[in-house]
Specification:
TIM Barrel, about 260 residues, about 50% helix, binds (6S)-5,6,7,8-tetrahydrofolate, single chain, alpha/beta, eight-stranded parallel beta sheet
């Protein structure tokens, strides 16, 4: 499982404040901590109004790249912000994201096809997020048609089945799991990702819910996840589940983590 570090997100008050005040040290510290904890990409989401998002996202990209060498995951629906950020990246990033929404397909897909290492494709469209796995799968089929038509090989596409909080909809995680299983059977060449922490919004002891969900999603075929790499218990559970599922050859990552003192 490859990890996309979620912490540089303008919906978080610490990050929002740092972006508005151009507090580079706070952002750099979050970038370093996540890279040191094994993030393969750092998600950057300015979360500011569309008119200032291009400037803010460019500042975030520059600030993170001054601190770490890890590639970025550019988290925005705004083509202008993504285009500006793509001018700044040193390494080909992930673009987060396209969806079946017309504006995103028209505005973001061409940028991703030209300049990204991969593109995240959300199972939603202009009608919203379907309540059923079948509805989401129908969107995923259309998205794969579009990425293939744009010349993007399937192995550069990261399908996101989308998960909302189980606090507001008790079927939410089940539908994400069913969508993942069905999409994986139909499109064995694509990657899968998920904004894992969404599942626990509004609940106490969120990390525990995140852990249960991560392990189930791993078994269903998730191979990347947007999560908090600083959550030790989550990473421990992930290492153990990868051993149990035979995904950690010779238990190498697990024993290495043990010797590094990470499993205490
Ligand atoms: N899919 C894709 N991209 C996404 C999401 C997704 N990007 C945004 C989001 N969902 C994933 N990122 C986050 C970032 C933070 C939190 C949840 C999802 C979060 N933060 C807590 C808070 O702000 O209160 C905890 C913060 C903390 O203390 O660390 O829950 O689904 N493709």
């Amino acid at each position: 499982m490859k990890i996309i570090g979620e912490k540089i997100n303008g919906t978080r008050s610490q990050v929002r404040k740092a972006v508005l005040e151009r507090d580079a040290e706070t952002i750099a510290a979050l970038a370093r901590a996540q890279a040191d904890s094994g993030a393969a990409w750092i998600d950057v989401n300015a979360g500011t109004p569309a008119d200032r998002e291009p400037e803010d996202l460019v500042w975030l990209v520059r600030t993170v790249q001054a601190a770490v060498d890890v590639p970025l995951c550019l988290d925005s629906a705004n083509p202008a912000a993504l285009a500006a950020a793509l001018e700044e990246v040193r390494k080909p990033p992930l673009v987060n994201s396209i969806s079946g929404e017309r504006a995103r397909l028209e505005g973001v897909l061409p940028l991703a096809a030209r300049a990204a290492d991969g593109v995240i494709a959300l199972a939603m469209d202009d009608q919203g997020i379907p309540g059923s796995a079948e509805g989401r799968l129908a969107i995923i089929r259309r998205l794969l048609q579009a990425t293939r038509a744009a010349g993007i090989p399937d192995e550069h596409v990261y399908v996101d089945p989308l998960v909302m909080s189980v606090a507001t909809n008790s079927d939410s995680a089940r539908v994400a799991l069913a969508t993942l299983r069905a999409a994986r059977a139909e499109f064995p060449g694509v990657h899968f990702t998920s904004g894992l922490s969404n599942v626990s919004f509004g609940l106490p002891a969120r990390s525990l819910i995140n852990r249960a969900f991560l392990i189930l999603m791993l078994e269903a075929g998730l191979d990347t996840a947007i999560l908090d790499p600083l959550d030790r218990e989550l990473r421990k559970a992930l290492l153990a589940a990868e051993v149990v599922l035979g995904l950690d050859r010779h238990c190498l990552a697990y024993t290495r983590a043990f010797r590094a003192g990470l499993l205490e």
